[in-house]
Amino acid sequence: MATSSNRVGQKDFDDWLDSRRQAHAFEIRRVPFSELDGWHFEGRTGNLAHRSGRFFRVEGLRVRILDGQGTQWHQPVIVQPEVGILGILMKRFNGEPHFLMQAKMEPGNPNLLQLSPTVQATRSNYMRVHKGADVRYLDYFRGARRGKVIADVLQSEHGWWFYRKRNRNIILETEDDVPEHEDFCWLTLDQINELMRRDNLVNMDSRTVLANLPAATVRPRGSGSADPFIRAIMASRDPLAGSLSTTPALLSWIVSQRSEPVVETARVGLRGLPGWYQTPDEIAREDRRHFRIVGVKVRADNREVTSWSQPLLEPMGVGIAAFIVKEFGGVLHVLVHSKIEGGFLDTIELGPTVQCRPGNYDEADAPLFLDYILAAGKSRIRFEAVHSEEGGRFLHAQSRYLVVEADDTLTGKIPDEYTWITLWQMADLLRHGGYLQVQARVLIACMNGLG
Amino acid sequence: MATSSNRVGQKDFDDWLDSRRQAHAFEIRRVPFSELDGWHFEGRTGNLAHRSGRFFRVEGLRVRILDGQGTQWHQPVIVQPEVGILGILMKRFNGEPHFLMQAKMEPGNPNLLQLSPTVQATRSNYMRVHKGADVRYLDYFRGARRGKVIADVLQSEHGWWFYRKRNRNIILETEDDVPEHEDFCWLTLDQINELMRRDNLVNMDSRTVLANLPAATVRPRGSGSADPFIRAIMASRDPLAGSLSTTPALLSWIVSQRSEPVVETARVGLRGLPGWYQTPDEIAREDRRHFRIVGVKVRADNREVTSWSQPLLEPMGVGIAAFIVKEFGGVLHVLVHSKIEGGFLDTIELGPTVQCRPGNYDEADAPLFLDYILAAGKSRIRFEAVHSEEGGRFLHAQSRYLVVEADDTLTGKIPDEYTWITLWQMADLLRHGGYLQVQARVLIACMNGLG
User: Fold this and answer.
1) Is residue A82's pLDDT more than 70?
2) What is the complex's ipTM, to 2 decimals?
């Protein structure tokens, strides 16, 4: 390592990441389902499961929206009824918080190796179902704590792809002398914010954990800035700044969105799922939209076990997830969308202004504000990067994450399922699980580097 | 009415309630299931449902706790996948908040008529499935609001008896001249607190809504009191008072309780439910513990419709729900219990220190702290009253609600699934649904009158 304690400058970081890439040989190969070791389609239901009964399963899901219009669909869904741990250790060096990040391979990552949290482990992982090595630094996050809790909250994962999956997002500040493994490195929030602007580098688990940083910990860098946009962001992180909705009114709006319509889901068999077909290599929709299920074989030497095979969910095309932001009374507000996703535990969570895979819609059905986002000039795009979702479950699931500043053409009535909310209000909601879904949290983490 | 605006003194209140009882003739009669108009046992599953497909259903539920010990049970459960409205209108007369309460009959109430919220309506009610009269004052709580939101939150109902049932608990302050119907009456919080000490008078829906009053609205009556208990309660409502756990540590503890074990539930048919039997008159457990399902016919002339029949859930015996409270550093703390109930949406919610029906346990399995509660001397019982649960679904479901001050014998280690929490921390959690279950909320409402 370039410095003691694995703290690195930008150049050193790139060298370190290269060294990690070179130190480990990875190989990913698509295979038919029949070549997935330990996986099989169960007799009666046709669900795809592991012989151990653990890890995860691919089942069928029927979703009915009781909205009087008979809205209903079927889809495969990943079922994993256990809470994983996503934990980042934080430690101050010379007073400045550093975060212990890990160079970690996941088979579904477009570039395989990305920066993950200190600990990223399903319960199956750390209960050692696959008889692999111990999970490093897990002790900090389980049992008797050795540190101060900065954040600890159950947050949902992708509601379109997972059935009621939640992970425990933890940030823990320690004063210990933490023993450092060569795959781990301490980074400042500034460094992470810079890396977040690179495509496919900071993995999804890191992004969701970092979204839970309290507003006060996200350092106000733009203090005294002449840029009104930066000043509006800083005001937006201030609990005393004026917001368009008071917090009681905001909570009341969320409750009204959550109360109707009723969303009724039923887990059904994967076999014969209406609208989907199955071949030896894939389970896909008849119109080939949305996503498909495929199989891969993995060989790696720095994982808990050195080779395995598994199903992955592969989305069709690159997605878009975007916040529209706008300053009201000197305070930046974000336009969030109350979203129904079939796999949510509760009816709705708040999501990006726009979230979709544009190729999956006929033009007439395009989501609201999509055209507005796509037409935005460069000067209004305050953040842009392509990030991929959880590479342990999703194959090349890339989305373009955007923060777009509204211009004066965005007037007119905002539909009732959208609302304007400040960064402080979002941070306040994030102390509790179930309010902000994963793509919204990623955008919040992206905004940590603004202002 | 004795005064203008239906505001009444205590004597007037009793006269008014008597007049309401006399004005309406009610008749409740137990009947076999075959005499329930519109209800039938469905073919394949044996579930008990209404021919309209609405109101509610009685189904079977299988609950598995994945705790390594194979804990599992079956039970009937009430399924009602819609969010009802429990709304109380608040209005200031001469500056003092008054709450608009309704004298309302429910067939399961031991004394039939109790005080309910201004609006107590399932979605089926207000969408007028049963073609009854309009629900009075509903407009205040649906659609365009005519008032200021004091509280608006989705709270769970009984997790042992309902499957994932939640109601919207709303308190709305209005400045309107509210037209008054003779079944309604404005009461101050002091008056309600006094009535809460009478047995079976303030109904469950009123109690759960009143639990959501912000701490600041619960008037500090004991200001300057010499009684250290009263002073400790007042300190407990102060956001700045010292608590044994900081709020981040408290939230982290809740997350840890919620993360393990996994609770897996499956809705199964009522027919052939293991451990239960069915006769023409009841569905009950083979050991006749816990509860049974029965049928009643109702005749009333002040309800939306004047007669109907329905199933009700009848618990076996009178329950106990108790908080143990204790002062630490001059601040009262409440000992809450992290409870798994099969019908919760999430794994756990916080409940009373003790909640059970004593007759339903062998002595060796008695809940922790039950003996401690039962042995408490009169001077340590700070609140005591018998209240019944939701009379629209539960028949004579009475529980003794107790607030017991700990003495010095309560030392020793508190098990990990219990924690001490202040009244302010509870009020803070109550702004969000899913943290405090219904019996805990009732006890919080009972404590509104202390200190």
Assistant:
1) yes
2) 0.93
